[in-house]
Amino acid sequence: MLYLGRHARCYNGGNLRNALAPQDRTGSPPAVLAPHSAGSSSSTLGVHLRMTGQLLWLHRDEPLHKHTRVRLFFGDERELRFVDQRTFGQMWWVPPEVAPESIITGLGKLAVDPFSAEFSVEYLALKLRNRRRPIKTALLDQSVVAGLGNIYADEALFLSGILPETLCTHLQPEQIERLRSCIIQVLKASIEAGGTTFSNFLNVKGVNGNYGGVAWVYNRAGEPCRACGRAIQRTRLAGRSSHYCVQCQR
């Protein structure tokens, strides 16, 4: 069962509300709806949280958040809520007979996952070869490596000892090997810490992420480096902030 805000979408690009059959209406929002293919185990629900999206697993009688957009009702009086203050997030329902990649088109543009076997040193070297742009900018390109955002790109570059302005074409094989290892290391650490909360990120249990408290460089401009004591520097590359240590990174 679902309560839908106006920002969810159906598989054909329209509003998801129009792709669902009314199950019950109270006469005032929120409306309660059910998918046409309810009960099908092969349907796909895609969610892109973007900047302020949150998925919260809650008891049904807990007060609604102001910016609740979608409610998915389950047994035992539990529900999954999609909360999104700035409404940049998206949700897609894809029926059983449709390939998710054909509807959620961004999936086809993603590079390999850092935790997959395909994310090898050779793969990363090939992706970075002939790219005359800073390595930090390249790492934010989801066609190079998927799932590495601004925070963890800074962290991986620090651990690998590479300055964010370093051009991809100037990287040595041993630096690329070290970078690949550090990307995986940072992502594992962030998952164990529950992610990073600097503004409004919450996990499905409504708990802040704790990685920010142990970050090596991100959001620590002017503070002493945890490794050498030098002040962490901050600059901007392609419109994004970058944090680094001039002593530990070359």
Helix-strand layout with pairing:
Layout: E1 2-4, E2 8-10, E3 20-24, E4 32-35, E5 44-48, E6 53-59, E7 68-73, E8 78-84, E9 90-94, H1 100-103, H2 121-128, H3 135-139, H4 150-160, H5 173-192, E10 233-237, E11 240-244
Parallel strand pairs: 2-9
Antiparallel strand pairs: 1-7, 3-4, 5-9, 6-8, 7-8, 10-11
Helix pairs in contact: 4-5
List keywords for this structure.
alpha+beta, single chain, 2 domains, four-stranded antiparallel beta sheet, 250 residues, Helicase, Ruva Protein, domain 3, 11 strands
> Strand share of the residues?
15-25%
Record the strand order, biggest sheet: 1-7-8-6
Round the mean pLDDT to the nearest integer and report it: 81
Give me the Rg, rounded.
21 Å
Please give the number of β-strands.
Answer: 11
What helical percentage do the residues reach?
Answer: 10-25%
Q: What is the terminal-to-terminal distance?
A: 54 Å
Q: What is the CATH level 1 assignment of the largest domain?
A: Mainly Alpha
Which structural class do you get from the secondary structure elements? Answer: alpha+beta
Summarize the main sheet. Answer: 4 strands, antiparallel
Q: Any idea what the shape is?
A: globular
Number of domains: 2
Enumerate how many helices there are, as a single number: 5
Low-confidence stretches: 21-40
Assign the CATH topology of the largest domain: Helicase, Ruva Protein, domain 3
Instruction: Give the helices and strands as they follow along the chain.
Output: EEEEEEEEEHHHHHEE
CATH architecture tag of the largest domain: Orthogonal Bundle
